[in-house]
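Sample intake sheet
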Amino acid sequence: MLHRKLLCAMVEEESDQSIQSIGFVVRRQESLTGRDRPRPRALSEEYNNIRVSPNGHRLSEADVFENIQIQSLLDEDSEKVYSRFLQVHRCYDLVPISSKLVVFDTSLHVKKAFFALVYNGVRAAPLWDSTTQTFVGMLTITDFIKILHKYYKAPLDKIAEVEEHKILTWKQEFVGMISITPEASLYDAVKLLSKSKVHRLPVVDRENGNVLHILTHKRILRFLHHYIRELPAPQIMDDTIEELGIGTYTNLASATYEMPLIDALALFLENRISALPVIDAEGRVLDIYAKFDVINLAAEKNLQ
C-alpha cells in the first residue's frame, strides 16, 4: 500500500501525447523474439565522448546509453523528471538476467501450492491452465488467508477436504491474469498497477506467452532509486510524507500481541492492507505483522 502511494505521488499524470522520444537502454535484448525486438543504437559522437568514465574505466554500451539518457533527462522539467524517467524505460529493463519464477498448474493441490511458495521464498505465482494453454490468474498470500478465514470454525472433516482441494476447485472462476509486455514503459506499468489495485504485474512475452518476470511497486522504486541522485529533484522531495498524503492517518487498523490470529486475518481482508502495526496498551508500535508472515503457517504442511 505504501509503495503504491509513494509511486503515485512521485509520478505525475501526463497525456501520452506529451511523451518525447528519448534514447534508452535495452538490456538482455537477446531473449526477446519477433520484429519488435529493440535495435541497437548507432554509435554517435556523443557516445564516443563519454566512452571512458571519469575513473578511466572503459564503459559498456549499455552504461554509455544510460549516461546519454540521464543527460537528456537533466534538461527536462524537474517536476516531471520521474514521470519522464519511467516513460523512457521499458519493463524489460527490470527483468533480471537470472531469477526464480514459480508457476503453478491449476490442477495442483492447494496445500502443495502454498507449501511451494514458502519453500521457494516467493509471495505469488502465475496460474497456468493446461486445458486452455493460457495463464488464468495469480495465486497469492491473500488466497491463503481467505482459506484460513473461511474454514476457521469448520469441522475437521471439512478442513481435511480443503487440503485435498485443487487450485481450480478453490478459485472456481478465473478472471484472467492482468499482465504487461516487456516493451511497455514503466510508466504504463505504474498506471496499470494503480488502476487495477494489484501488487504484482507479470511481464509476459507476447510472442510466446512466457512470463519473464513479476513487477512490483517495490522493484520499480528500487530501479528509480538507483538513478535518483543523478536526476534533478522535484519539489515533492522536500515535502513530508504526510503533506503528500502517503500513508494512513485515520481509521488505522492495528493488532496487539494478545489478538487472536483469526482476528488479524479478518483485518487484512476487510481493510485490504498488507501489514498491521502491533501496538501496546499506550498505542506504541512494538512490531509489524505482515501478510507474508501468515504464509509461514503453510510451512507446517497442515491446515488443521
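Comment: The chain has a mean pLDDT of 75. The two ends are 31 Å apart (CA to CA).
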